[in-house]
Amino acid sequence: MPEVHALLSASSSKQWLNCPPSARLQENFPNESSVYAEEGTFAHSICEYKVKKYLHERVRRPQSEEFYTEELEQSTDAYYDFVVGVIEEMKRNGCEPLVLVEERVDYSHIAPSGFGTADMLIIGHDAEGRGILHICDYKNGKGVFVDANHNSQMMLYAIGALHAYGYIYPIEIVRMSIIQPRLDNISTYECSREELEAWGESIKPTAKMAYEGKGEQKAGDWCRFCRAKPVCRACKEEALSLCREEFLDLDAGAFAEDARAAPSEVEESDTTAPYTPDRSAPTFKQPGLVTLDELTEVLPTLNRISSWIESVFAFISSEAINHGVPIKGYKVVEGRSKRIFTDTKAVVETATQNGYTDLYKQQLISLTEFEKLMGKKKFAELLGEYVAKPPGKLALVPDSDPRPPVDLSNGVGGVTEEFEVLENE
Fold first, then answer.
1. Cα dist. 2→5, 41, 44, 54, 117 in Å?
2. DSSP notation for 163-227
3. CB 27 within 8 A of CB 20
4. Which pairs from 308-316 meet CB under 8 Å and 24+ separation?
5. Model confidence over 191-237: pLDDT tens digits?
6. Contact, 20 vs 210, CB < 8 A?
7. What is the mean pLDDT of residues 396-404?
8. What is the mean pLDDT of residues 322-332?
């Protein structure tokens, strides 16, 4: 996997297209990795290995005791199946497609010094003979649902691919697919070559501003992975504004303008006499219980507020723990840890010498390992009847999520299984 990233990278394009100054602001902060990023990198390397093996290239399978899991094997298989399906379909259409794995593309004619690495580029034609450019991108995460529809990362990859191969191949249609198996998400967006090139021209002014560090800071859901987020004034103002707007009564109470207005001409009485409000205790809207409808109205803003809070705490914690910066009112302590063996070989030898021999557990190999042992066809023939896919964990998501809603009327999730439905008397 490539280590160098462009200032105006495709993966961060949603960010710099909506908040142009963020590209330069982030240069002041280290691009630190995370366990999730490292897991994603390993998953991408497995995807690359599987596709290259299909293409009969000599490759060595990546190894990782830390990140390899049964779920990862199945997720990368889903990516492999989709990509191979696209290639085989083009072959059935009568062409030998151009297949490029982990291909670096350059879109600097649109965004200054812009480049990125596409997981997969496939160029061929469809059943009608139209030239097709198909971009495929694997997403390992399950925290954020990624849609291919007008996805700027994918569109920049496609623009770079067109710039490199569009004069060689008669490309008419561009398809962009996101494969995100851990959320059962495979989405594809299609547009004409002309539409894609027009979009590229339309973002040139914004890309130029971003490269020069100009423009207006603007907070939004694109701030999620911005390294400047914890100290960004726009993020702070938005988070506090959302808190005031959703939870504080601004028309009356401690923070209301009326509390600071000039005295009224009305004769002073017990009810009109001036007082000094306690500004340390904000007045919440409608004291008492909040209705479900009211909470639902607040729901879309909660992620934005909590995300900013988490980023601020992570930034301050890093300053204290990693750089020794003293934080007033806080201290660094050691958390709870688990005991571990420092030398497992010596442990086994010592225990065996003292008569303890039952030291290992015997465990059935995984479903995927069975499939690889037997082959998919034989596995389905012998063990297919014993395989089931249980329903996934239920989650509440916005209506914009393309996944179909779950029918809860039949007791899914244990609601009606636990309680008897009472009829109205």
1. 8, 10, 11, 22, 8
2. HHHTTTS-EEEEEEEEEEGGGTEEEEEEEEHHHHHHHHHHTHHHHHHHHHT-S----SGGGTT-T
3. no
4. 308/223, 308/229, 308/235, 308/236, 308/238, 308/239, 309/239, 311/229, 311/230, 311/235, 312/230, 314/230, 315/230, 315/231, 316/230
5. 999 999 999 999 999 999 999 999 999 988 888 888 888 888 888 88
6. yes
7. 74
8. 81
